[in-house]
Design brief:
This protein has three helices and seven strands. With about 140 residues, the protein is of the alpha/beta class. The chain has a single domain (about 1-135), classed as Nuclear Transport Factor 2, Chain: A. Strands 1-4-5-6-7-2-3 form a seven-stranded mixed β-sheet.
């Protein structure tokens, strides 16, 4: 599932860099590490969730710190790519299906299933998340 612009072909290193970002989020979430979660984003990155808009790494870290101590305590998160597109040599878009898993769950409950878009940018040779947005998956 990959599309590219007509003139750009991403390298295997770029594919790996883009593919690694969701895994870094999953790992940070599993450790309830708000700082590691925030490090995935560019400094002026944004995160949009239902009823929430955060701008800037600091705001994202603060929100996740509170969430890991509150409603997300003990949870994990999962996501599977459903589409990967390189829009240029330094911009990629990834779409995922996933959601939050409560302790002991192995599959996302329908009421917590989401679809997400990840706008990734390459800066100083590394891939980062510029914008993340999710919404309820609804019915397929």
């Amino acid at each position: 599932m990959s599309a590219t612009s007509a003139n750009f072909r991403p390298s295997p290193v770029d594919h790996a860099g883009v593919a690694a970002l969701p895994g870094r989020i999953v790992a940070a979430w599993a450790q309830h590490d708000a700082d590691a979660f925030g490090e995935v984003f560019v400094e002026d990155g944004s995160m949009i969730l239902p009823d929430l808009f955060l701008k800037g790494r600091g705001a994202i870290v603060a929100f996740m710190r509170d969430a890991f101590a509150g409603p997300y305590q003990g949870t994990t998160v999962t996501g599977q790519p459903i589409d990967v597109r390189f829009l240029s040599g330094d911009v990629a878009l990834v779409l995922t299906d996933g959601g939050v898993l409560l302790p002991g769950e192995t599959a996302v409950a329908n009421e917590r299933a989401i679809r997400a878009s990840w706008l990734m940018v390459k800066r100083d040779g590394a891939w980062h998340l510029a914008a993340y947005q999710n919404s309820p998956a609804g019915k397929a």
